[in-house]
Specification:
Number of helices: 9
Oligomer: single chain
Strand content: under 5%
CATH class of the largest domain: Mainly Alpha
CATH architecture of the largest domain: Orthogonal Bundle
Number of domains: 2
Radius of gyration: 21 Å
């Protein structure tokens, strides 16, 4: 085994790298906490304990708890796009594009990141005034993120844009509904492959116009 070179030091991370790492750790702590103990027990104390930072550090990065929660939502949208960004759609048939889109999107809807996102949005929508507006703004942001990915996969479809909007909403409704069903059924629940196949067949037929 080679001996370490005398006098060498571990590579030092930049301030930006340390900042990004801390932000990611705090966001992961929130997601983990919501998944394990629920939204309402994800307190400031719980977040800082899991992230291994002080509340002052959390405020420095996000301002307050709402700031953290919005960052978690943004992170979730980013993860959704990342699940699909490595798919090169140019040479794929419509059937294959639909199959990959449904598969990757369903992975997102059944992830703990999406489960945390859903709980955060529900909490805001339950509140009056400020909360309702916040929920509406993030619903718009989620729709825009979804639209960008959808257009990359199916932008060449001859179907009018308004009809494609209906198909997007339908797809979100089916996938989120199936994910919720799995969650309610608990450990050992089976993925509804027949329902996913029906969604794929419907999208292929509709997108062909």
């Amino acid at each position: 085994m080679a001996s370490p070179v005398r006098g060498t030091r571990p590579e030092r991370r930049s301030h930006a790298e340390r900042r990004a790492e801390t932000r990611a750790r705090i966001i992961e702590a929130v997601i983990e906490s919501i998944a394990e103990v629920g939204f309402h027990r994800t307190t400031a104390v719980e977040i800082t304990r899991r992230a291994g930072v002080t509340w002052g550090a959390v405020q420095h990065h996000f301002g307050d708890k709402d700031g953290i929660l919005f960052a978690v939502l943004e992170d979730s949208f980013g993860r959704f796009a990342a699940r699909l960004e490595d798919v090169v759609v140019a040479d794929l048939s419509l059937d294959r594009r639909v199959a990959l889109f449904v598969e990757r999107a369903f992975e997102h809807f059944t992830s703990r990141e999406y489960a945390s996102t859903f709980e955060i949005l529900l909490d805001h929508l339950r509140k009056e005034g400020r909360g309702a507006r916040a929920g509406a703004s993030w619903q718009l942001e989620m729709s825009r993120a979804w639209e960008r990915v959808w257009r990359r996969f199916f932008g060449d479809s001859p179907v009018p844009r308004r009809r494609q909007g209906v198909l997007q909403h339908y797809t979100i409704s089916v996938l989120s509904g199936l994910a919720a069903t799995l969650l309610l059924e608990g450990t050992g629940a089976n993925v509804r492959e027949e329902e996913l196949a029906l969604l794929r067949d419907t999208l292929v037929r509709e997108l062909r116009g």
